[in-house]
Specification:
The complex is a heterodimer of chains A (134) and B (460). Chain A has a five-stranded parallel beta sheet with strand order 2-1-3-4-5, sandwiched between helices. In chain A, 42% of the residues are buried. Helix content of chain A is 40%, strand content 18%. Chain A is built from six helices and five strands. Chain A has a single domain, classed as Cobalamin-binding domain (Rossmann fold). The N and C termini of chain A lie close together (10 Å). Chain B has three domains: 77 residues, 2-keto-3-deoxy-galactonokinase, substrate binding domain (Nucleotidyltransferase, domain 5); 134 residues, Rossmann fold; 161 residues, no CATH class. In chain B, 37% of the residues lie in helices and 24% in strands. Chain B has a six-stranded mixed beta sheet, with helices on both faces. Chain B has a five-stranded mixed beta sheet with strand order 3-2-1-4-10, with helices on both faces. Chain B has a five-stranded parallel beta sheet with strand order 6-5-7-8-9, sandwiched between helices. The longest helix of chain B has 22 residues. Chain B is globular, with a radius of gyration of 23 Å. Classes of the chains: A alpha/beta (134), B alpha/beta (460). The structure holds cobalamin. Cobalamin binds next to α1, β3 and β4 of chain A.
């Protein structure tokens, strides 16, 4: 059973989507470690180390995602999990920005997959299966 | 009642400061060229002769201690994994120990980087990488690379604690002079300076000054106790904090523009505002940065590199000089001293540029971010905005006819609100060049050292 760490990053309290993601991924048979809302990068990374997770799935709904996610890949490298998959989704930036540019910035920050607003967790399941090899 | 002799074996000058605890002050000082290339004791004895001449007779000192930056100072290589994390942590530890960080490497070392450690004549390597329990593959790889290279210099390992045993056996197998200390970044963004810094100082005193021919002076004096920049850092810290009943001055910034480097010290809490989000590696209370590309002579060309074509044109037009020519002249003739008003003016201009640029790198930055919840402030680095005291030391500043102009460049002259530079500080100079000496004295009489420093700072 592969482990996935999920949570909502930064000072973000939007809890409903997080519960749905937990439910969806657990039902698919993944070992979901849900660190909940108001989580720091370090919380995600520590949970991933402890659970030997292969994917960290970051939610950001309140529009502050870019600053909250900066430097996360670097911290993963120092923490010995430099190869872990990093996903991010929700409403990751404020308002309506050209998403291809937003996506590019997050890819440069070391995220493997970056989802635009309106993409629910169901639409990402194929990617997860592909990346984790199941 | 005691008399102390405090010495700095500098790269060019050997400086002596004589203190009398009875009068509670410096009673004489003298200097002479450092002679570490031939025999360090010659320059020392010459300086001592000068000192006796100014006093009028020989003196028996109760204690004679020294700091040293002779023979290139303490040259270190800082190695870590990720640039912003363990590399930065390693670099800060070296600087805090009074070293010159000549080489900085990240991730896996390659053979040309290892080769550079040889050609640059590095004295000590600090090897870091990985938080505790984090990445270990990289430090193991690097430890093997360094050990295989037979460098013959001490290596301090301050990385992931989980592989300390493996690292130790790699060092042992290759007969490396290896030392294991606490991780410089045990957790992400947490800086842990102390053990690594103490070990570096220890190695400096045990091995490095011996190798550089400085130790031989210990037949003449009691002891070399610190690298010079660390003595200055200690003095600054004492000056800021105070000691027992003798109050300090509060938070300070100290500026030292030299021929080869521009050093900045800030003794202050990294942040004072509750309404900002702090990002990045933890900042030290006593922070030293050294800009190897900003200096008045050896590194003068670095000033040129930091300027744009337009800026060069502007300066030339405004001051009626050819700044490129002036800088190149100073870079070739490193012993040049200003002979007239114009040369003095140009030197001051160069010093101002060094200070401006060095503070740009030393001070923190504030970023404003618009979020759905309104404006949020993100701070990286130290907030120096409410620093009250900026002190200048080193020949260029002390001897300048207008030191205030130079020191003022630490402040926000270009009104860039995102740079957390001092706003409205008062300016002082260490007019008798005694900070290093008081750092030495503070090791055994901190109250006296503090009193003397306070007495000798001159407001400009
Ligand atoms: C309910 C709500 C709140 C509640 C939250 C209660 C709680 N504890 O959960 C309260 C009132 C507290 C709140 C506060 C705020 N909110 Co609000 N909130 C909403 C609202 C109306 C619904 C959110 C929700 O629950 N949706 C239902 C769940 C199921 O959907 P979801 O969260 O989007 O998650 C799904 C997908 O996004 C996706 N997903 C999520 N993460 C990831 C990750 C990956 C990798 C993938 C593939 C998919 C994925 O899958 C999830 C499940 O399908 C939305 C508007 C909306 N209709 O979405 C605004 C909204 C999210 N909030 C918004 C704002 C601005 C705020 C505030 C800043 C308002 C303010 N000025 O104070 C604060 C922020 C507080 C904070 N610190 O977080 C904005 C965000 C704008 C932006 N990003 O540009 C929104 C979009 C409203 C809007 N249009 O302006 N909010």
């Amino acid at each position: 059973m592969k482990s996935i760490v999920i949570g909502v990053i930064g000072a973000d309290v939007h809890a409903v989507g997080n519960k749905i993601i937990d439910y969806t991924l657990s039902n698919l048979g993944y070992n979901v470690i849900n660190i909940g809302v108001l989580s720091s990068q370090e919380d995600f990374i520590n949970a991933a180390i402890e659970s030997d997770a292969e994917l960290i799935l970051v939610s950001s709904l309140y529009g502050h995602g870019e600053i909250d996610c900066r430097g996360m890949r670097q911290k993963c490298i120092e923490s010995g999990i430099g190869d872990i998959f990093l996903y991010v989704g929700g409403n990751i930036v404020v308002g309506k920005q050209d998403f291809s540019e937003v996506k590019q910035r997050f890819l440069q920050m070391g995220f493997n997959r970056v989802y635009p607003p309106g993409i629910s967790i169901d639409m990402a399941i194929n990617d997860i299966k592909n990346d984790l090899g199941e | 009642m005691a008399k102390y002799l405090l010495i700095d074996f500098g790269s060019t000058f050997t400086k002596l400061t004589a203190v009398d605890s009875e009068i509670g002050d410096i009673f004489a000082s003298a200097n002479h060229f450092t002679t570490v290339d031939t025999d360090i004791t010659i320059g020392y004895k010459n300086a001592l002769d000068h000192l006796y001449k100014t006093i009028g007779h020989p003196v028996v000192f109760d204690r004679v201690v020294a700091c040293s930056s002779a023979a290139g100072g303490l040259k270190m290589a800082a190695i870590g994994l990720v640039e912003e994390l363990t590399v930065e942590a390693a670099k800060r530890v070296c600087l805090g120990a009074g070293a010159k960080v000549d080489l900085v490497f990240s991730h896996h070392l390659n053979s040309s980087e290892v080769e550079l450690i040889k050609t640059k004549k590095i004295d000590i390597i600090l090897l870091a990488g990985g938080s505790d329990g984090g990445n270990s593959e990289c430090v193991l790889f690097n430890a093997k690379m360094l050990s295989n290279a037979n460098l013959g210099i001490p290596i301090v390992y301050g990385g992931n604690k989980s592989v300390q045993d493996e690292i130790k056996s790699i060092f042992d197998q290759h007969h490396v002079n290896g030392h294991i200390v606490d991780n410089v970044m045990p957790r992400i963004n947490q800086l842990n300076v102390k053990q690594a810094r103490d070990k570096i100082r220890d190695l400096f005193l045990k091995n490095i000054i011996e190798a550089k021919g400085i130790k031989k002076i210990e037949s003449e004096i009691d002891k070399v106790v610190l690298p010079t920049p660390e003595a200055v850092l200690k003095a600054c810290e004492l000056l800021a904090k105070g000691y027992m009943n003798e109050p300090g001055l509060g938070e300070v910034v100290v500026v030292d523009v030299g021929g080869a480097t521009t050093d900045l010290y800030s003794i202050s809490e990294p942040s004072k505002r509750g309404d900002v989000i702090i990002t990045g590696l933890e900042e030290p209370y006593a922070k030293r940065t050294v800009e190897g590309d900003l200096g008045m002579r050896y590194s003068a060309t670095g000033i040129l590199k930091a300027l744009t074509k337009e800026e060069i044109m502007m300066i030339n037009l405004e001051k009626g000089i050819d700044i490129e020519k002036e800088i190149n002249e100073r870079n070739i003739n490193v012993g040049m001293l200003p002979q007239n008003q114009k040369e003095e003016l140009i030197d001051r201009l160069l010093a101002e540029m060094c200070v401006y640029k060095a503070m740009n790198r030393h001070a923190g930055k504030m970023e404003e971010i618009y979020t759905p919840m309104g404006m949020v402030h993100h701070q990286t680095g130290k907030d120096l905005t409410d620093i009250d005291i900026v002190i200048g030391t080193g020949g260029v500043i002390i001897k300048s006819t207008d030191p205030k102009q130079i020191l003022a460049k630490t402040t926000n002259v270009f009104r860039n609100d995102f740079e957390l530079r001092p706003r409205h500080p008062k300016f002082f100079i260490d007019s008798t060049y005694s900070l290093y000496a008081m750092g030495l004295l503070s090791e055994f009489d901190p109250v006296l050292a503090l009193k003397i420093m306070k007495k000798h700072l001159t407001q400009v």
